[in-house]
Amino acid sequence: MAGWALAFLCLYLVFAFGLRILAHKVRTGSTGFNGIGGEAGSLEWWGGALFALSPALGALAPVLDLAGVLDPIGVLDGRFGHQAGGGMFWGGLISTLLAQISMGDSWRIGVDPREKTEQRENRATASTTTPGTTWSTTSTIASTGTSVLCRGPLCPTR
Questions:
Q1: 103-112 b/e with 16+ CB inside 10 Å = b?
Q2: What is the band of 136 on the pLDDT scale with cuts at 50, 70, 90?
Q3: What pTM does this model have?
Q4: Is residue 155 part of a domain?
Q5: Distance between CA 7 and CA 14 in Å, rounded?
Q6: Poorest-confidence range of 71-75, 116-120, 142-146?
Q7: Residue 154 placed within a domain
Q8: How many helices (H) and strands (E) does the chain have?
């Protein structure tokens, strides 16, 4: 299942970042990537640095599983755990994409204090100031944890 977890992580990265950055570039002329902000060592800097490292950290568990270093978590290594993992992954991916779409041209990775954008308030963004981060966190947790064990109608079988 570790191979599927890596495939899901790649799928997430392609849709939530690759295609989103491409679409943003076509619409606005900018990639929307502002990089890591803040002074080195500040909370803002650590947030950006950990965000930049998250794809590698997300791939760590399945890679270690493929290398034989990790074993599946017994209580999650069954039909319910596999289906829950698949549901969390797909729900997180779809929610991330919907949040990004709802932000329109205001979507960014990172903060540039000189840049002014129109924040669009709607149902997807009303409850949080960072809807993309909120939903991508859900998807990241699912893809790096439970989706390693994914099996059932939403995912391929072993």
A1: beeebbbbee
A2: low
A3: 0.69
A4: no
A5: 10
A6: 142-146
A7: no
A8: 5, 0
CB contact at 8 A, 147 and 4: yes
Number of structural domains found in the chain: 1
Residue 136 and residue 55 in contact, taking contact as beta carbons nearer than 8 Å: no
Question: Which domain covers residue 88, as residue numbers?
Answer: 2-149
Residue 158 counted as domain residue: no
Read off φ and ψ for residue 66, nearest 5 degrees: -60, -30
If you average pLDDT over every residue of the chain, what do you get? 75
Q: Tokens 């849709």 appear where?
A: 15
Q: What is the pLDDT of residues 34-74, one digit of tens each?
A: 777 778 888 878 888 888 888 888 888 888 888 988 877 78
Whether residue 42 lies inside any domain: the answer is yes
User: CB burial class (10 A; 0-12, 13-18, 19+) of residue 1?
Assistant: buried
d(CA 46, CA 57): 15
In angstroms, the CA 98 to CA 138 distance is 13
Q: How far is CA 4 from CA 8, 83, 87, 147, 154, in A?
A: 6, 13, 14, 8, 12
